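Re: Re: ligand-bound prediction request (bumping)

Still looking for help on this. To restate: I need the protein modeled with adenosine-5'-triphosphate bound, output as structure tokens. Inputs repeated here so nobody has to scroll up.
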Amino acid sequence: QVAKTKVALEVPKVKWNDIGGHDDVKQKLKEIVEWPQKQTAAIARMGVDPPHGVLLHGPPGCSKTLMARAVASETGLNFIAVKGPELFSKWVGESEKAVKSLFARARAAAPSVVFFDEIDGLAVKRESSHGQGVSVGDRVMSQLLTEMDGLVPMKGISVIAATNRLDIIDSALLRPGRFDRILYVGPPDEDARRQIFGIHLSKMPCSPDVCISSLAAMTSSYTGADISAVCREAAMIALEEDVNAREVRVCHLDTAIARVKPSSLRQSSI
Ligand code: ATP
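Reply:
Sorry for the wait, this slipped through. Here it is.
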């Protein structure tokens, strides 16, 4: 029954260069995940207890998932991803078993990264449950805390979690020895947007006058996911115009930017 929880094992192929901007986050993730796996002797020599888990937080579409995949891929680690809410199930007891089996799987696949996406769906502050006794959420959380407490970072398992809602995360999860590093992955600045356009447009044939710097300047509140949507839309517009189109032109990108609004605006208009 536990097998119903999606815990597909993969070796992701995302490279650091596939992510525009956020050099500081990339560097920190390398230190937190790569060093304990690769520099075990140096870390032991210095007598430090390496971080246990890292929590990435920030608005949707700003590369939290890409970051987790990239650090696993660049460090040569297996990757097990699960969405927080998927761990809940309607059968009593099964959700805790799912957490247990997830970590058992990670140990068997070590060196590995366990990635909890949308951890807020799992780890909301327990005070916010409505006084109806021990909820499934409480039990899943307790199991997660037990597993985190039992982790020895240099034994080959790194835990990364992501959330858009740091404010509702149970503080028990943020204590030392659990998710004890918190990194903000925010919206891209202009230089990062230029890099993100470069990454996505490099996969498409573009006319030589397409200028990624102007595109970056025109898209001030766009996230990485919005920019990826703009590039896709531009290619579709080129094809709508002429099914034999061979390149994306400046006019296609301008129209795409006019059509694809930044997700922050889309959300506030809902
Ligand atoms: P959510 O909170 O909604 O899960 P997220 O922060 O995990 O979002 P990702 O899933 O990593 O965001 O990004 C979604 C998509 O947006 C990526 O697959 C990629 O195509 C694009 N993208 C986002 N940020 C970047 C970036 N910095 N560089 C290149 N592409 C990006």
